[in-house]
Amino acid sequence: MIKEQEQAEQKPAVPYFDHNSPEYARDRFQWYRNIRAEHGPVAWSPLYGGFWIVLGRKELVEAAKDWETFSSEGVIEPETAEATAGCPVHGKGNGLFLPPRPRQVPLLEEDPPAWGITRRALNPMFLPGPVSQWRERIQTIVDAAIDQVIETGTVDFTADIAEVVSTVFSLELVGIEAKDPRKLAKAMNTSSHLAADDPLWAEVNAVVGQEAARIAEALGRQAASPTQGGNVTVIQTLLAARAAGTDLSDEKITELAMLVLGAGFDTTASVVGTSLMMVSENSELRRSLIDKPESISDTFEEFLRLSAPTSGLTRTVMRDTVLGGQAMRRGDRAMLLYAAANRDPNEFPEPDEFRVGRRTNRHVAFGSGLHRCLGAHYAQLEFEIILTTVLRRMPDFRIDAERAYKYDNIGLVDGWVTLPATFTPGPKVGAVVPGIGPA
């Protein structure tokens, strides 16, 4: 007991580090700077049973690539000392999230070999070729969303553009038509900002359950009568994988479709919203992007580095190890803070500044290692089309920074509740998309 107490006292503790707190949402970047200065790239929070916080980019990448030591699967702690001699017992809903969430997330909370089976099944539709086929459709969705507000001179970039576009596109990508996308967007985005015991979970789960039922219904129809032509969808891709011999039940296909659906909502809306705020506040950057719209694709990585929509995800330490000079024990939890690593001064000169043409930009906003974001190409395409179209059709927009605000809990994903703005009204282009305005 004395030895354990001595080890605990030696940990570089940060007693205030609660990633689910309003203070974190407001001050996280200053917290990162303070922790680095006081403790280095790896520190310890005593909250939620205690967990390591990994801020350094080098250390984060090292952990993310070593899945055998830093597991994404949930781990239930052994009840007896004798049980520690064998393999840990893998459970559900305790892999990436702290505190745990009620359901295990396929692919994200899987390690090899299960991870490889799932990833290979999904991979064909996430390659650059299939992604590029969606460009025209995403452009139509963006124009349809802007058409709903373009004549008014006012817009909420969160509710009217970022959330609507990402929701409608994600639904179509999965393989179902958009139906009441604002309601679904609100539920899915809210779920990323709830504490584990929040009473709103019941309402959120009801809405999400309705979409899962629609996906299951569409899956049944397409399994019985496969569709041909059009852009490739998640349902089509997974049915093809099953036909080729991959063991995928209807339940697993539905879960994976829901994963793609959820992953495309709040993270994309977050980076779009934060980027529009940067443009609104930086006249030089705005003029540069308007004059050279082709440069938007080149600036995406810098927008993404600074916005870092996914704040952090947790791993479970499977064997004693050392990371960033800190001794970690089997069973410890370690949170990989992507947003902090993206502003590591050892990797990025002037890390808090937006720098066009940054020579090296090895950010980890999409993650690192096995679990690097599968939908990165889609996210980039969606971002480029939204930003390019907004600057073309609303070039003088101004966000009301005093009325714009974020969620109080960004422990999982950073996000804007509202981004109200004004602009000079313009004409509609006549884009029509089911779920956005008149059908």
List keywords for this structure.
45% helix; 5-stranded mixed sheet; disordered N terminus; 16 helices; alpha+beta; 439 residues; 3-stranded antiparallel sheet
What does this structure look like?
With 439 residues, the chain is α+β, with helices and mostly antiparallel strands. It is 45% helix and 10% strand. The strands form 5 sheets. A 5-stranded mixed beta sheet has the order 1-2-10-7-3, with helices on both faces. A 3-stranded antiparallel beta sheet has the order 6-14-11. β1 and β2 (51-54) form a beta hairpin. α6 (135-147) runs antiparallel to α7. Mean pLDDT is 89; it is low at 1-9 and 79-93.
Succession of helices and strands:
HHEEHEEEHHHEHHHHHHHHEEEEHHEEEE
Helix content: 40-55%
Oligomer: single chain
Structural class: alpha+beta
Mean pLDDT: 89
What strand order characterises the main sheet? Answer: 1-2-10-7-3
Spatial gap, N to C terminus? 68 Å
| Fraction of residues in β-strands | 5-15%
Q: What is the makeup of the main sheet? A: 5 strands, mixed
Write the layout of secondary structure elements.
Elements: H1 2-10, H2 22-39, E1 42-45, E2 51-54, H3 57-65, E3 70-71, E4 74-76, E5 89-91, H4 114-122, H5 128-132, H6 135-147, E6 154-156, H7 157-174, H8 181-191, H9 201-224, H10 234-243, H11 250-263, H12 266-281, H13 283-291, H14 296-307, E7 313-317, E8 321-323, E9 326-328, E10 333-336, H15 338-341, H16 376-393, E11 398-399, E12 405-406, E13 416-418, E14 420-422
Parallel strand pairs: 2-10
Antiparallel strand pairs: 1-2, 3-7, 4-5, 6-14, 7-10, 8-9, 11-14, 12-13
